[in-house]
Amino acid sequence: MAEQKMLKFVNVDRDMPEKRVPNLRTSDFDEIYQQFAAEKAAEQSSRCSQCGVPFCQDHCPLHNNIPDWLKLTAEGRLQEAYEVSQATNQFPEICGRICPQDRLCEGNCVIEQSGHGTVTIGAVEKYITDTAWEQGWVQPIKPYAERSESVGIIGAGPAGLAAADVLRRAGVQVTIYDRYDRAGGLLTYGIPGFKLEKEVVERRNGQLAEGGVTFKLDCDVGKDVSFEELRKTHDAILIGTGVYKSRDLGGPGAGLNGIVKAIDYLTASNRHNFGDAVPEIDSGELWAEGKNVVVIGGGDTAMDCVRTAIRQGATSVKCLYRRDRQNMPGSLRETANAEEEGVEFVWLSAPKGFAGDDKVTGVYVQQMRLGAPDVTGRQAPEEIPGAEYLEKADLVIKALGFEPEELPTLWDTPELEVTRWGTVKADFVSKRTAMDGVYAAGDIVRGASLVVWAIADGRDAAGSILADLNAKSAIAAE
Question: What is the CATH number of the domain that holds 467?
Answer without folding.
Answer: 3.50.50.60
